[in-house]
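Blinded run. Sample ID left blank on purpose so nobody reads anything into the name before looking at the predicted structure. Input follows.
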Amino acid sequence: MIPRIHKRGKRTIGLLAYLYGPGTHEEHTDPHLVASWDDNAPDPGRDPQATLKQLQHLIDQPVQNAEEDSRPTQHVWHLSVRNAPTDRILSDEEWADVARRMVASAGIDDPDQGAGCRWAAVRHADDHIHIIATLVREDGYKPDLDHDAQRVQDEARLLEAELGLRRLNAGDRTAAQRPTSAERHKTEREDRERTPREELRETVRRAVAGASSDTEFFDRLAASGLLVRQRIAPSGDLIGYTVALPDDRNKDGDPVFYSGSKLAPDLSLPRIRERWAGTETPGQDGDSITADAPLRSVPGPATARRAATTAAWQAVLVFDSGDDEVIAAHIAAAGEVLDALAKTSAAHTRKELGEAASAFERASRSHVRAARGHDRALRQAARDLVHGGPALGRGEDGASTAMLIDMAFFLVTAAAAWHGKKEHAQQAAAALQAAEHLRTAYQAAAGHPMAVLHQRGRLLPPALQRRQAAYLRAAVPELAEQILAEAGWSALAATLADAEAAGHDPAALLVEASGRRELGSAESVSDVLVWRLRRLAGLPADASAMPIHQSGSATKPSRSHISGPTGPVRDTRDPVRGH
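Blinded prediction complete.
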């Protein structure tokens, strides 16, 4: 059940005409009164003698009786209450009870004192009602409407339980503003897939991902094709911005601009600046990373994806022992990585990655304020992804995309678990939804590189296969038989052979890859270990250009330590992917 308080108005008759009318697309059927402040109020929908003017006059009477200078300018209060499509259809009597409880919870009516405002609830569809009220009480005073939006939301949660309706998660006022009904209707008329507000929010989010200054942010907005206006204070300081789609116009033909804060709470300019402002914080590789430092190098797509995988791996470790504010910063930065990944990935994964980023947007904000600065490695990863440019769907680009999605899945599920512990229900649900999109994207990205590895594994000489199995039993005896029975074992065997040929000790590498996080919950432990091993050993993610191993003779490992793609691995704990 979704209650929504609309913008206040000053024409009672205009709103009544809409509620009792046919609707903008003839969608209103059988408009009629289900409840009101007076059981004898006229119903223009079912009483042929009643008129809209009569009902409007009665509802407005306390307003007209008030002293003119004390009348509210915008005196019309409007609430819609809508059920989910899967909910059962409520009777008029049930909707009447919903209406009475909503106006009481909002402060419109006060049944105990008998001195509320006049109101009427109109039903013109199976799944929702509209409540109209005027904002002067019968005793001449104005109603107390402080926090009316939160109060009707709380009442909706109680009604859902009592009426057996779909239970929605309680909100915490950190969600992005939903499109208004007018915006949705305009979008339908213009045959758009999304409202301009939603399209702008995604574009601005992607412009923020990995940006390090006002100049870079605004350059990205301009490059994306948006119309941008900057707000300048009398002092000359830049204090805000608004954006518009070039083809979204109002009735006068002017572009419709939205401020960043109207797109999402964390897209106002002050909140965006928090991402790159602050003191220096040591990077996870031990180097000092400053907010205004130039890009160290412009990596290629595959290099950027491998570095982002390492950053995501290290970020998940923060969830083990980090402070809540630091974890919140990593979750927010994870959203930037997903936006950058969606923006730069190949067509066959772009849609699901975009859906994952959009879903995770809700998970990136909570009342735990992010301690910015600790998230620099992830933000740098997002920046490298953007500067690395678009990735191809095959070869090293495509395989390293699968590797990063594999780790991003874990980062997102770790965020879901943290939100769950904090009882952030909406954020936890959004993170889990993002994880499902990542699961689908992984399957699309990993199909070709894993097929190559499977084929390489099946071509290994029997003696070499037996040796890799022995390494497996020595390193992870509790899971060895399960892994050997998986369809992905051949891909893992090929990866172990590649690592051995590169001079690594496969058994030691497996111990490092299994790390401190258990593997038993993974759907395919083989897949998990393949990507971990290839990253830890510095092997190409795409094995199609590597030589096939034809010899079953042992290769003596020559390296004294295990190296990752960018140097020695300092902490080899790793999350377990559950897809």
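Unblinding after everyone has recorded impressions. The chain has 20 helices and twelve strands.
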